[in-house]
């Protein structure tokens, strides 16, 4: 009987290892074909994208699609951005290990995990309570103890944790909230999909120098809408 139990355990363990190896291979293919081939060169960004298990940040019925070149639905009308967009936005922030980063729009927690692989502190705000709580549990279970999740209105930022070296907004908005500009450190970078409601937005990178913002237009993008408490 003991031999039979050990044999069954060995079968399950082998299947688990093979499954993880398969996902690792898919991540490598994702990085090569979706990121590197499109010009993303930042080593720390690529290393983070290779490491974070994207399939654990999507619903169970979407795991087989986790590494395809497309956004995926995660519930509550929200999505996890396509890998290229996650990598592109991360690279544009030019993050350093000592940086403190604020993310607006936690979603599944995937972008926060990517950031947490690179910087010392990540603060992320999600307005939808169920998504925020699930993301917090997921990040904690995966060992990301340098990420703090808050349920709230991202428009207001997180003043008690500011200033931030970088801010990333993962929802489309028609203007940049003043509270977030105020919470951006001198020399800080803010990346945001900005433009009229329900249209293709322009991904914009802002750099704060001597209290003024330098604006750089990057690429056209489509994102879910920024949500506020009173909407």
UniProtKB/TrEMBL annotation:
One of its GO terms (biological process) is protein repair. Keywords: Cytoplasm, Methyltransferase, S-adenosyl-L-methionine, Transferase. Its main location: cytoplasm. It is found in: Cytoplasm. One of its GO terms (cellular component) is cytoplasm. PROSITE patterns: PCMT. It catalyses: [protein]-L-isoaspartate + S-adenosyl-L-methionine = [protein]-L-isoaspartate alpha-methyl ester + S-adenosyl-L-homocysteine. Catalyzes the methyl esterification of L-isoaspartyl residues in peptides and proteins that result from spontaneous decomposition of normal L-aspartyl and L-asparaginyl residues. It plays a role in the repair and/or degradation of damaged proteins. Belongs to the methyltransferase superfamily. L-isoaspartyl/D-aspartyl protein methyltransferase family. This is Protein-L-isoaspartate O-methyltransferase.
């Amino acid at each position: 009987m003991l031999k039979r139990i050990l044999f069954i355990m060995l079968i399950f363990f082998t299947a688990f290892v093979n499954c993880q190896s398969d996902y690792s291979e898919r991540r490598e293919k994702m990085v090569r074909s979706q990121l590197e081939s499109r010009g993303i060169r930042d080593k720390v960004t690529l290393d983070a994208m290779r490491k974070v298990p994207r399939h654990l940040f999507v619903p169970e019925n979407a795991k087989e699609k986790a590494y395809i070149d497309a956004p995926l639905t995660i519930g509550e009308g929200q999505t996890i951005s396509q890998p290229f967009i996650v990598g592109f936005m991360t690279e544009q922030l030019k993050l350093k290990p000592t940086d403190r980063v604020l993310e607006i729009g936690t979603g599944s927690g995937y972008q926060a995990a990517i950031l947490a692989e690179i910087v010392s502190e990540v603060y992320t705000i999600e307005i939808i309570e169920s998504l925020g709580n699930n993301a917090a549990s997921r990040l904690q279970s995966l060992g990301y103890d340098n990420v703090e999740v808050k349920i709230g209105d991202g428009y207001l930022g997180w003043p008690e944790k500011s200033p931030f070296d970088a801010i990333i907004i993962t929802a489309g908005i028609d203007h940049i909230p003043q509270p977030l500009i105020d919470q951006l450190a001198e020399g800080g970078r803010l990346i945001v999909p900005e433009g009229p409601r329900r249209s293709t937005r322009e991904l914009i990178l802002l750099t704060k120098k001597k209290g003024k913002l330098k604006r750089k237009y990057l690429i056209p993008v489509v994102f879910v809408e920024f949500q506020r408490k009173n909407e």
